[in-house]
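Example 9 (inverse folding). The structure is encoded as follows.
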């Protein structure tokens, strides 16, 4: 008797049911890891709920004042030993220039949110294939920061006992910081490590530098986290080492996204699979930044 070959019909019209196997489950994971075009309403809802949850958890962390002040003293002593304890000098010098410190107060209070949301929207519109991976980096970074707030309460320099730092928001009566003035009771005062101003601004800067095609936009991408570092120190909201904590959180965020998607966000296709480029194929450059 000869061998009999059974050929199954192929193609999208095939309706033959297959049992659920390990291969089937692997296919589900593959689909989840494949970037798809994001849905605007879902992303707005996700960002709103995520930020609300982040704020709720951050502010629900017990305000361990004694431990936070003790940790601040340790950070300050450590920076002195390393020769990088210049926060107080920067704080006093910048505070002496009224227009500059007032501008930094508003920078600290607003750009942290405005630019991050702006970069997310830009990714959504211009790089939908990379959006989910980039958003995953940001969310993972923020989630890890919450662990830092819980495990390592830290007072900012402006709240140190005998630190002689200037709380620039209180002194100059500018609107903004949830950690100063009448709003300080609504925010956890001792959630300074890591600095998400640095984590988020560096995410924005690296994203713009990797994907933007306009040279001055790429340059601004590099300058933004550097300027943010100066601002968080000048306003006495963070130590230099808080910024290091923010960088470490972002590094873990990129690592997790790399493991899940198989590539860093900028290395993924600009458009999701199955989405045609709006320009002719000959002129399309899907993998180049726009």
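The amino acid assigned to each position is listed next.
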């Amino acid at each position: 008797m000869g061998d009999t070959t059974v050929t199954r019909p192929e193609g999208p019209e095939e309706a033959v049911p297959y049992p659920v196997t390990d291969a089937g489950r692997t296919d589900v994971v593959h689909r989840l890891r494949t970037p798809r075009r994001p849905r605007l309403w879902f992303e707005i809802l996700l960002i709103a709920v995520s930020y609300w949850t982040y704020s709720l958890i951050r502010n629900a962390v017990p305000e361990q004042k004694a431990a936070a002040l003790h940790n601040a003293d340790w950070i300050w002593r450590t920076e002195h030993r390393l020769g990088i304890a210049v926060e107080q000098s920067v704080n006093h010098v910048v505070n002496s220039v009224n227009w500059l410190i007032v501008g930094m107060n508003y920078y600290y209070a607003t750009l942290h949110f405005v630019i991050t949301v702006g970069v997310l929207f830009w990714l959504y519109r211009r790089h939908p294939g990379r959006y989910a991976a980039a958003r995953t980096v940001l969310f993972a970074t923020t989630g890890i920061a919450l662990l830092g707030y819980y495990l390592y309460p830290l007072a900012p320099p402006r709240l140190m006992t005998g630190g002689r730092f200037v709380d620039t928001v209180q002194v100059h009566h500018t609107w903004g910081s949830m950690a100063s003035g009448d709003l300080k009771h609504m925010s956890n005062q001792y959630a300074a490590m890591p600095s998400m101003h640095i984590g988020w601004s560096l995410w924005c800067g690296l994203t713009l530098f990797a994907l933007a095609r306009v040279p001055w936009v790429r340059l601004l991408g590099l300058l933004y986290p550097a300027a943010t570092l100066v601002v968080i120190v000048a306003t006495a909201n963070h130590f230099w080492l808080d910024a290091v904590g923010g960088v470490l959180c972002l590094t873990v965020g990129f690592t997790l996204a790399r493991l899940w998607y198989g590539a860093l966000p900028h290395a993924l296709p600009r458009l999701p699979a199955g989405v045609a480029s709006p320009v002719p194929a000959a002129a399309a450059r899907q993998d180049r930044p726009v």
